[in-house]
Each structure stands twice: as C-alpha cells, then as structure tokens.
Amino acid sequence: MNILILNGPNLNLLGEREPEVYGSESLEDVNNWLVEHPDNRMHECRFFQSNHEGALIDEMQGQRHWADGFVINPGGLTHTSVSLRDAVAGCQVPTVEVHLSDIHAREEFRKISMLKDVCIAQIAGQGKQGYLQAITLLEKKIKKHASY
C-alpha cells in the first residue's frame, strides 16, 4: 500500500515547540520510527511537510494517483482551511486526520476540524502512535473496499 503522510504548519518544529504538548522527538524522528516500525514494513510511505497551505494541496493533488491513502496532520489549518478540506474531498483518496495532542481537551477553537467530515477517521492524542493507527485504519478500509 502506498501512503502519503502530510504534515502541516509548524510540525517542522517538533521536538522544539512546546515539548510538553507535542513531545521531544523531531518530525524526522517520527518519520524514521514509522518507516522502521514492523507493523508498517509492508507499506511504502512518502513524507511531505509544509508551512504553506497551497503546497500541501499541490502535493495531495500531485500524489493522488500514486497514493492508496493519505494521513494528514494539518496542524493549525485543521481549524481554518476550507481549501484543504476541499482538496481532501476532491482527491477522493481515503484520508485519516491525525493530531499528536488531544485537540478535544485543549482550547475551544482546536475542537473544530474543517477536515473531519471528509476523512474516514480522526485520531487525536495518541502521539506518534496516531500515525501508525491511521495507516492501520487505511489498510482495513482499502482491504474491505477491494473485497467488494
């Protein structure tokens, strides 16, 4: 299975920015852990991070024929981006929204996701494990769909 893992604004600062909320590992550490994890060795993952909404959309659209699924941590765009939501819907690739922290236990504005209703699931508060859980959900969804 081919998985595109997208990370939005400020995730390039993982390990430096608010480690008490987001942990002490860098995004590169998380990506390397995911690639090396035994439960993920059957999948090819491509990683993309940008602080720019349009770059994330361009990457999704450009990879939509390669990817069997998207995992997206939209960062702050979660709460504001209709354009990113429309890109998820328009690409028609099964997508799981991931958040390292529990956005539902934080500030009120973080509880609103513009993407949630166009994704097959939202995973929040599981740290880096959330990415692996997202891939597992995509695998189940794709296998179920292929068996019809």
- Assigned CATH class: Alpha Beta
CATH fold title: Rossmann fold
Helix content: 25-40%
What is the domain tally?
1
Number of helices, counting only DSSP H or I runs of 4 residues or more? 5
Please characterize this protein's 3D structure.
- By secondary structure, this protein is α/β, with parallel strands linked by helices.
- It has five helices and five strands; from the N terminus they run E-H-H-E-H-E-H-E-E-H.
- The chain has a five-stranded parallel sheet with strand order 2-1-3-4-5, sandwiched between helices.
- The mean pLDDT is 93.
Write the layout of secondary structure elements.
Layout: E1 2-7, H1 19-22, H2 27-36, E2 44-49, H3 53-63, E3 69-73, H4 82-91, E4 95-99, E5 121-124, H5 129-146
Parallel strand pairs: 1-2, 1-3, 3-4, 4-5
Helix pairs in contact: 3-4
Provide a brief overview of the structure:
The chain is of the alpha/beta class and 148 residues long.
Keywords:
5-stranded parallel beta sheet, alpha/beta, Rossmann fold, 148 residues, globular, 36% helix
